[in-house]
Design brief:
313 residues, alpha/beta, Rossmann fold, 10 helices, 9 strands, globular, binds NADP nicotinamide-adenine-dinucleotide phosphate
């Protein structure tokens, strides 16, 4: 029933049909807001009201960070087409324009730059205002930052977007049933980051910073699997795929790159309803030893709590 959700709505303008755009304290001009539909804080329909879900996919509402492009956008598209309630995310209101093809059938669009702790906190508020998510896909990421390029909070952008933001959102968004974190095969090269997680004592190395951030987010996923037995928490390596980040030379299959995270988010298959996995193309792989190490996980959580001022546990 991929198209039934779309066809069941009758509003003439596809863009104006977006149920709501949440911008928290940031105001949107009338013309801008009209692009997306009613502005403000309309409540989303209660979880479980959709009758369009696939039988093996009972999860109703999914928030996907970084859904303006690449894997996040593709994952959002497939979940919406399956009848799920998807909350989209754009870095800025301007970037939300890229969601015009998806927003009409989405449950909401939230805005916030993940390189800013303040905006990330505000983003969590926007998500919570919509209601509790069944699943969150922590997808947004940056790759090779040419320099340490300090954020407003004084951190390298790679650390801020790839590690601190998913950590903060995990702590501040009402706890969902399922959590999925986008990792990378490069995380295997990210060991030893706790000696200088903030890159204050080393010469900047963009590839190493990315690898470390992906090891950290993998460790976060596995920590949560250990600490929260009632939540399914997993990490996914999408492979090297042709997105803005992956570039046109990428040899991986884009569709296989996003179907693991959508499956983990909504499927009721026994294979998908597990926790603590590191996945590649719907198969469990062995993550780096450090990501699995409870001592490393605990130290990492302490460091992230200190860097963000928010304790997850
Ligand atoms: N592509 C690959 O080969 C590959 C391989 C391994 C892992 N991954 C991982 O898969 C995930 C998705 O990658 P992708 O290839 O789809 O990347 P992409 O095409 O570059 O898309 C990244 C998404 O994240 C958003 N984003 C980046 N910085 C942000 C910020 N500061 N605030 C808010 N949103 C921000 C982007 O927003 P804008 O559109 O505004 O830039 C975009 O929506 C990433 O975590 C990445 O590390 C990708």
């Amino acid at each position: 029933m991929p198209s039934s959700k779309r066809s069941s709505r009758s509003s003439p303008s596809p863009v104006a049909r977006c149920r709501f755009l949440v911008t928290s304290s940031r105001r949107v001009s009338g013309a801008r807001a009209a692009q997306f539909g009613p502005q403000g804080h309309r409540r989303a329909p209660p979880i479980g009201t959709s009758t369009l879900r696939r039988e093996n996919s009972p999860v109703a509402r999914i928030f996907i960070t970084g859904s303006t492009d690449g894997l996040g956008r593709a994952a959002a598209g497939v979940l919406i087409s399956e009848g799920h309630d998807v909350v989209l995310h754009a870095r800025t209101l301007q970037r939300a324009a890229a969601l015009s093809g998806l927003a009409p059938d989405a449950s909401g669009v939230v805005i916030g730059d993940l390189s800013s702790a303040a905006e990330t906190r505000e983003l969590a508020d926007q998500v919570n205002e919509i209601g509790r998510m069944d699943a969150v896909i922590h997808n947004a990421g940056v790759f090779l930052e040419p320099s340490r390029s300090t954020t407003a909070d004084g951190h390298p952008k790679t650390l801020a977007v790839n590690t601190l933001a998913p950590y903060l959102l995990t702590a501040l968004i009402d706890r969902p049933d399922r959590l999925i974190y986008l990792s990378s095969g490069l995380h295997h090269a990210g060991a030893g980051s706790l000696r200088d997680i903030d890159w204050t004592g080393r010469q900047w190395n963009a590839t190493q910073a990315y690898a470390e951030s992906k090891l950290q987010v993998t460790a976060l996923a596995l920590t949560l699997a250990r600490a929260w037995p009632d939540v399914l928490s997993n990490a996914v390596d999408p492979g090297w795929v042709p997105t803005k980040m992956g570039g046109p030379a990428a040899t991986g299959d884009l569709e296989l790159g996003y179907l693991t995270q959508t499956w983990l988010a909504v499927s009721n298959d026994a294979a998908a309803t597990v926790s603590g996995g590191y996945w590649y193309h719907r198969r469990r792989q062995a993550p780096a030893a450090e990501a699995r190490d409870p001592a490393f996980q605990d130290q990492l959580m302490d460091r992230l709590a200190a860097l963000t001022g928010v304790a997850l546990f």
